[in-house]
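COMPLEX REQUEST
Ligand: guanosine-5'-diphosphate
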Amino acid sequence: MSDVLLKRATFLPLSWQCFRALCCKGPPPARPEYDLVCIGLTGSGKTSLLSKLCSESPENVVSTTGFSIKAVPFQNAILNVKELGGADNIRKYWSRYYQGSQGVIFVLDSASSEDDLETARNELHSALQHPQLCTLPFLILANHQDKPAARSVQEVCLMNVTSLCLEYAGCGVFQHETLVF
Ligand SMILES: Nc1nc2c(ncn2[C@@H]2O[C@H](COP(=O)(O)OP(=O)(O)O)[C@@H](O)[C@H]2O)c(=O)[nH]1
Ligand SMILES: [Mg+2]
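STATUS: Structure written out below.
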């Protein structure tokens, strides 16, 4: 009986070593994390976009009151994206949440009214000029591209925004293509 136990006791550590040597590739390399801020008027599609990037259903999203944070996993990095609510009475507080950001996503509803687009442009210009954001990479997403009234990415570019690190892209959260950045 004690012989059997002894054999088992010596066998277990050896088999574990074999298992590690043969199968265990070690922990995956740590992915760098970056802190981003995501802004844009209410209804532009910030929550839907982040839900889709997290492989969650973008349908039935709840309107964001205040702000929310999502960790968006990519193959080589994790983006900790802070979405700031876009309502009139909240936008004036956006700048309080800019500190520590390493990049900015500005989401536009490219099918919105001229008035809303003008409001979005003013907010975009303020963000671009803010001392804590003005040197950061900036991605402007012209969302709602699936709608017939949507302005094209080129038309949105003609909104006359200038900065060194601007990147424009079009997307429609409910289009079937994968979002490409
Ligand atoms: N057709 C269409 N609807 C969208 C798109 N993105 C968001 N929506 C809808 O717009 C509404 C507001 O979206 P939400 O993500 O809450 O906007 P947020 O206020 O910027 O976070 C929701 O009803 C979404 O389903 C899009 O690309 N196309
Ligand atoms: Mg939201």
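REMARKS: Residues 36 and 81 are 5 Å apart (CA to CA). The two ends are 64 Å apart (CA to CA).
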